[in-house]
Amino acid sequence: MIEDTKADLFRLRRRPLTEKLTDQSFRLLAIILASLVGLILAAILITVLVGSRSAMSAYGLGFLTTSNWNPVTNEYGAFTAIYGTVVTSTLSLLIAVPLGVGTAIFLTENFIPTKGRQIIGMMVELLAAIPSVVLGLWAIFVMEPFLRPLLNSLHDTLGWLPFFSTQPEGPGMAPAILILVVMILPIITAIARDSLLQVPIELRQAAYGIGTTRWGAIFQVILPAGISGITGGVMLALGRAMGETMAVTMIIGNSNNFSLSLLAPGNTIASMLANQFGEADGNQVSSLMYAAFVLMLLTLIINVLAQWIVRRLSLRYT
Amino acid sequence: MDSQARPASNSVNRSLHRKPNLPRNRWNVIFTGLAAFFAATVVLPLVLVLAYVVIKGASMMSLTLLSELPPSPGMTGGGIGNAILGTLIVSLIAALIAIPVGVGGGIYLAEYSKGGAFASFVRFGTNVLSGVPSIICGVFVYGLIVATRIFFDQSYSAMAGGIALSVLMLPTIIKTTDEGLKLVPQELRWGAIGVGASKFITITRITLPTAFKPIATGIVLSIARAAGETAPLIFTALFSPFWPEGLFSPIASMSVLIYNFAIMPYDVQIALAWATSFVLVMMILVMNIFARYVGSLNRI
Question: Residues B156-188, buried b or exposed e (16+ Cβ, 10 A)?
Fold first, then answer.
């Protein structure tokens, strides 16, 4: 008898209504919170698009190729800023990739004891934590004065090239590129380090086993095996460099006059936004929104491409 | 390389000693030196920036600096009390918005999703959102909140700044929650369900507490990052030379103060910018080191 009632008890155990309700509403809440991400992304796109509508209809695609930016006559073209964005981010990437990948190799191979590698790795991560506005302050008062004689001699010797054709006088594209290098180095180093660490130890051992040298293994086995992650990291860094605002705004000079020279002051989309958005009204706001839309599109394409590359090229060692 | 050694492949030429003069060994030394040089170059900016921030900022530390209002242009003295308070308030608003949303989203990804289209869409969206430039977040909140005067007809406000920062924090929190929850062994969930706990109880009493450390680390790191952000604040929270007047009026923050004062032609303001940098950098570094300490305690 007793056995039976116990069995009945188990059979009759129903989930109370409150428990069911909590469970289901919690699930629903989690779904809603998760979908907020998509909602925010859509809201960002729509806000920027709606804001830039009047500038889009007024200037069309010519906005991207003309370089006069004149609030007085209400003429706006973002070519200078787009050129600045592309040039500063690409050149900074060219400098930062060898530095970052080299450091990542130094941190993953056993050149120095693990303790030393950990300390350097942590310093690289702390560099990423320094706010960009502090780097900008440092760039204005320390880096740029220190660099000026160097840039001057560059102008004196290579001044016949259009890229060095102006006398450096303080803020300009070149210091902006260098501060961008400082800002994207941590991300390149971190991602390259992660993807090099994922290369299985057996690949290294096999390479050493057939008699290659350390750098032979690095160049011909380890780097090719980790290339997908590194490429993805480089693309992410490119996106970061394009959107980087404060340090660049403080050191690039914010000039809308187009100049090929890297020693002249320039502008990027982000620095233009930071510099003008607060005081703008009417068509200027709309034009700035248009520029923001261009920047958003650029970074969006690069980020999606980066994710795609990582997924497509990644070799799976399992 | 050893083709000239081959004809006389006797003991002398075939010795097992390393020959430092072989081209491949020379290249090895060169590349190793280069890699070490690169690593030193990467670390150098951190050392230099920290050194200057400490040299120029630490000497100005005093109680008046931490508690008084900034001087008006041309005056001396004063402090950055309102900016410190403002940064704390704005970061707090951002954290209060981003933590529930982010942890909730992470819970969905790790506990509920079954790898369907919606889950991969959310993951993709999280990655895309983390790549959105911070200045765009500022433009977005400006267009959504500041320009429309949605809060009590106020334009620039601490609330708008906090919302802009929360958009920046969100992807990091979702990712760390998702990854932290995935580290929880599946057996714990089975055990909880097995003794009759509902899914809600399993998540709130078992999995979330187990994954507390990695999630807390991620949250502290994202707050530290948000506290140093300037771009989303310059035209949402704006700046104010006064003490905070509430959540719906412009508010000072350390990062915007550095930006504003660094380009002023007054030495007092520039010195204040350095002092503020010192306070901000120390705050962020302490948070970073604390987060790393929490994360390293003992993994799950």
Answer: bbbbbbbbbbbbbbbbbbbbbbbbbbeebeeee
Give the count of beta carbons closer than 10 Å to the beta carbon of residue B23: 8
In terms of Cα–Cα distance, which of B134, B233, B136 is closest to A291?
B136
> Each residue of B6-65: pLDDT tens digit?
544 454 556 777 777 788 888 888 988 999 899 898 889 899 999 998 988 888 777 777
Q: What is the Cα–Cα distance from A97 to A241, expressed in whole angstroms? A: 12
Distance of CA A318 to the CA centre of its chain: 30
* 3-class state of residue B154 by DSSP: strand
Residue numbers in B near A126 (CB within 8 A): 46, 285, 288
Chain A residues with CB-CB distance to B259 below 8 A? 133, 136, 246, 249-250
CA B262 to chain A, closest CA, distance in angstroms equals: 6
Cα dist. B99→A37, A278, B87, B169, B172 in Å? 13, 29, 17, 8, 10
Name, in order, each residue with C-beta under 8 angstroms of A239's C-beta and a sequence gap of 6 or more. A299, A302, A303, A306, B131, B133
d(CA A98, CA B38): 8
- State how far the Cα of A140 lies from the Cα of A145, in Å rounded to an integer: 8
Please, what is the Cα angle at A100 between A96 and A105, to 5 degrees?
150
Show residues of chain A in contact with B42, CB under 8 Å. Answer: 99-100, 103, 124, 127, 185, 189
Highest-confidence segment of A147-151, A271-275, B64-68, B167-171: B167-171
Nearest-Cα residue of chain B relative to residue A278: B235
CB distance A37 to B125 below 8 Å: yes
Q: Per-residue confidence at A198, pLDDT binned at 50, 70, 90? A: confident
Asked if B158 and B93 count as a contact pair (C-beta separation under 8 A), the reply is: yes
Q: A89 at the B interface (CB within 8 A)?
A: no
The pTM is what? Answer: 0.87
- Which residue ranges form the domains of chain A, and what is each CATH number? 59-313 (1.10.3720.10)
Of the candidates B35, B44, B218, B48, the one whose C-alpha atom is nearest the C-alpha of residue A124 is B44
Pairing state between β A75-76 and A69-70: antiparallel
Residue among A50, A246, A300 whose CB faces B231 most closely: A246
Inter-chain Cβ pairs, chain A and chain B, closer than 8 A: 261
| pLDDT confidence bin for B104, thresholds 50/70/90 | very high
CATH number for region B66-296: 1.10.3720.10
ipTM: 0.86
Q: Rounded CA gap, B1 and B109, in Å?
A: 56
pLDDT value for B13: 58
- Per-residue pLDDT averaged across A206-227, rounded? 88
Q: For chain B, give every domain's residue range.
A: 23-59, 66-296
Amino acid at A257: N
Inter-chain CB proximity B143 and A242 less than 8 Å: no
**Buried-state track B30-64, b at ≥16 Cβ within 10 A, e below 16:** ebbeebeebbeebbebbeebbebbeebbeebeeee
